Amino acid sequence: MTFKEQLDSMFNPRSVALIGASNTLGKWGFNILALLLGDKSRDIYAVNNREAEVLGLKAYPSILDVPGPVDLAVITVPFKDVPSAMEDCIRKQVKGVVVISGGLAETGEEGAKVQAQIVEVAKRGGIPFVGPNCMGLFDTYSNFNTVIFLPPLRRGPVGLISQSGNSGQSIIISGLESGLGFSKYVSSGNEAALHFEDYLEYLAQDDEIKVILGYIEGLREGRRFLELAREITKKKPIVVVKAGGTQAGAKAARSHTAALAGSDIVSDAAFKQAGVIRVEEIGELIDVALLLLGQPLPKGKRVGVLSIGGGMAVMTADTVARHGLELPPLSPATIDKLNSVLSRRWSHGNPVDIGGDRFNYDCLWPLIEDENVDVVLVIGSPAATRSFVGWFSLHAPWVTNLDEMGKLMESKDLVELNRVKEMMGRYDKPVIFCSMGIGIVKQGEVYSLMEQNHLIPYPTPERAARALSHVVRYSGYLGISR
Amino acid sequence: MTFKEQLDSMFNPRSVALIGASNTLGKWGFNILALLLGDKSRDIYAVNNREAEVLGLKAYPSILDVPGPVDLAVITVPFKDVPSAMEDCIRKQVKGVVVISGGLAETGEEGAKVQAQIVEVAKRGGIPFVGPNCMGLFDTYSNFNTVIFLPPLRRGPVGLISQSGNSGQSIIISGLESGLGFSKYVSSGNEAALHFEDYLEYLAQDDEIKVILGYIEGLREGRRFLELAREITKKKPIVVVKAGGTQAGAKAARSHTAALAGSDIVSDAAFKQAGVIRVEEIGELIDVALLLLGQPLPKGKRVGVLSIGGGMAVMTADTVARHGLELPPLSPATIDKLNSVLSRRWSHGNPVDIGGDRFNYDCLWPLIEDENVDVVLVIGSPAATRSFVGWFSLHAPWVTNLDEMGKLMESKDLVELNRVKEMMGRYDKPVIFCSMGIGIVKQGEVYSLMEQNHLIPYPTPERAARALSHVVRYSGYLGISR
């Protein structure tokens, strides 16, 4: 079996044995088994040497007693029992193992000894394993999942590797809330056998995956990571939170995934040289992923701002400047075009402040066409129509044609939003929306269309500008941005 | 009439005339009238010299034709007609005027001339006015509101003054979403007559208001602002977004509220010397307000972190350090107490990583009691119980007593949350929650109790630490923090 085949069978096993299956709600062996039981396409086996049945399944005293072949074993037994469970897995000739159990190298010398035993056993048997001290993995295309406490998943172009289970959960939950879909995820834990670098190499070969996200505390093979990244980032962006960047954080990382024991220090400069986008926190990671998936790469850092309110225009100008981006003067042709669309009250400059109370598409086209502008940032959002109409329903319910009006506005929004997509493609230029004003209703066809295209509005101009500054730098790295 | 009585009658008028009332949906004169019509406790008059009726009300050609007395006139007519409308208001002896109409000093010379006329007329008549180029005001205690496109308001301890209408909307909407309640709001617009400083003085005297928030582009009376602030911040915190801090932002501000024309430059240092908390964006403003309202002022910057996951603990340590806060070593007594509560796998240091998957209160009490700790930051939240139980309902619906279990957990959460409040009071120490993991369900008694007490979880440790660093500095200014 090649390395890729080995990992394939872990992300898409035909049969799975849970070693440590439990009847006690809340235990890992209960929760994961409950999740696996929902998977009717696979053979699921419960292994427990003290029970006859677990959650209605026959329980086998050992994986060796399981009648059929087992592709993947998931181990949740107490850490001191993991080495012998691993022995059994090898004798059973499983193709891969996920060790959920914690209490190993991250807790000190005793645990480190046990972890070393597991590694030795697995190496002898030639079996790759995930973890220990992890939450497992999922693949939305093979419909396989061992990761508990996640909301319903959505398929999509994001691959994720996280050295922390709970950081992984936060990334996935935030991502789902922002309309991202995931392809493969692995919680890599202590990385006693398979390393971040192995998963990175594997995800890079997956055609479903367009962006690779990572949460890193420490890299075991820093040089290999950089070599891989240098190749991958030419085609697929890699965005990582590298935690433990401060002294306090590094100290906390040491007691968490035992990350620094034997790990390489990869500097910010090295990340940059390999084209890796490094961010500081989870919200930033999601924000950058959305831009990378929803937008063409920017050709430069000159931002044209269109705002439906003056105060937001001022704050946006501030945040654009603070993030090292520029607000170019608009071309005379753009000024002319806007003069013909707007009343003479408009700001006559960049930001374009239309001073109205609803987003106006006719001000958007000239900005997309303007050669002085590399990126269009819109403060205002097509998806606000519903709350706009909702306000009237509340305060002017006696208006008879409100529903009709709302539908008309929404169908116009749909047409125009499709034109935004078309114009983005034609001019190969990002158009980024930010919400404001009367709030965003996350419902309806307009919002769905935005979500499908990773165009949902950023909650603040600050977050859009922060993400954009990362993407402009990446685009410069690729030689696309000037 | 004293200055206070004049403003009182604007925030709580017995009778209101809308000059520029309109039958056209979407116009200011329509939208505001629709809002006012919902107010059955006041006499509302429509003024329009071309219609006999507006929205079912008899329309008067001029405010002079209104039969009864008028406390407040709201003007929405085109800007060139505002001076004569103001003349009429003076003859009618109204107590105050709100000029919504824009197109004045912010658009250039012509508008500036009209604005000067309005100021002259109003000064002659001794009438204070709000605006022009604004969205008006509300008072949730008098139930008066002219501000359109807001979701239903909630009463509470926040007073807000915004020089931008749309920034004000964003602040109010974000605040409401975070559980804040508002008392008085004024959109101050171009401040041709009443200045930010006037409203500040007025809100400072309002006993319902515990925190004053502001959005500032430029101050007309910088010295007066600082003198007022120096007195007010001894009792009530003032938190402001001062926009236009960059060159690009300042330029945008010039074409917005004409802020720099005749305004004073107040430096960051001057804000600090007056105890004013200055933030950069709206989310930060809300975050700081929540801390000020929900928490005792911290006695120092030593943060004890309790985390239900290791990765989040590392990122929290990073962000706490980046914001100039400290992670002190825990006292030996705390380590002992935690040893008796946690399995030997815990991190044995600060952050306290309990490595479990649900928030555990028994780890919280020792941190609150620890003399080394000034602030407790909890990564995890009592309000997560619902989504925890929800996950089981989805993946293990055959468990028979899930509902019961959920109710039991929630009632325990309620008891413990009340103990958190009690401990916070007893030790006079902030306890700040951050969400993570399986997400927060914004429902149920637990979330309500958190919301009522301004204890709802911050969405990221980053945002909690950023807000905390501001509050620690303010606490230092007051001599409370070391």
Global outline of chain A: elongated
Q: Can you tell me the CATH superfamily of the largest domain in chain A? A: Succinyl-CoA synthetase domains
Cα(first) to Cα(last) distance of chain A is 45 Å
Strand order of the largest sheet of chain A: 3-4-2-1-5-6-7
CATH architectural group of the largest domain in chain A: 3-Layer(aba) Sandwich
Biggest interface pair, residues each?
A: A-B, 87 and 87 residues
Largest sheet of chain A: 7 strands, mixed
- Report mean pLDDT of chain A, rounded to a whole number: 92
Structural class of chain A: alpha/beta
By DSSP (H or I, 4+ residues per run), the number of helices of chain A equals 17
Low-confidence regions of chain A: none
Examine the coordinates and then state which fold CATH places here, giving the name of the CATH topology of the largest domain in chain A. Rossmann fold
Instruction: Tell me the strand percentage band of chain A.
Output: 15-25%
The total strand number of chain A stands at 18
Number of domains of chain A: 3
Radius of gyration of chain A: 26 Å
* Percentage of residues in helical conformation of chain A: 40-55%
This entry's quaternary arrangement is homodimer
